[in-house]
């Protein structure tokens, strides 16, 4: 699944630089995650880095973007091959 940032976000700026895919950006009011770029850090790390650093635990799985580990890995492969 891709992740989403809830409205509990305090705009602390710690999640954006942790995303290896560049999926996190500042939205109108809070940070947002682009689901087409979010692999939950599959291919990069064992755990989602944004979730690890979030001080208010406002980053959760997106029920509207359910993906298997294999789908996340395929997305990672696509993203990294596009950038290479």
Automatic annotation (TrEMBL):
<protein>
    <submittedName>
        <fullName>Ferredoxin</fullName>
    </submittedName>
</protein>
<dbReference type="InterPro" id="IPR017896">
    <property type="entry name" value="4Fe4S_Fe-S-bd"/>
</dbReference>
<feature type="domain" description="4Fe-4S ferredoxin-type">
    <location>
        <begin position="31"/>
        <end position="64"/>
    </location>
</feature>
<keyword id="KW-0408">Iron</keyword>
<keyword id="KW-0411">Iron-sulfur</keyword>
<keyword id="KW-0004">4Fe-4S</keyword>
<dbReference type="Pfam" id="PF00037">
    <property type="entry name" value="Fer4"/>
</dbReference>
<keyword id="KW-0479">Metal-binding</keyword>
<dbReference type="InterPro" id="IPR047927">
    <property type="entry name" value="YfhL-like"/>
</dbReference>
<feature type="domain" description="4Fe-4S ferredoxin-type">
    <location>
        <begin position="1"/>
        <end position="29"/>
    </location>
</feature>
<dbReference type="InterPro" id="IPR050157">
    <property type="entry name" value="PSI_iron-sulfur_center"/>
</dbReference>
<dbReference type="InterPro" id="IPR017900">
    <property type="entry name" value="4Fe4S_Fe_S_CS"/>
</dbReference>
């Amino acid at each position: 699944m891709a992740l989403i940032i809830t409205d509990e976000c305090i705009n602390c700026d710690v999640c954006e630089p942790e995303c290896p895919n560049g999926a996190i950006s500042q939205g109108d009011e809070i940070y947002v995650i682009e689901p087409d770029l979010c692999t939950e850090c599959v291919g990069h790390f064992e755990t989602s880095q944004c979730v690890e650093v979030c001080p208010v635990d406002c980053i959760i799985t997106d029920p509207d973007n359910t993906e298997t580990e294999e789908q996340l890995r395929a997305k990672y492969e696509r993203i990294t091959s596009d950038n290479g």
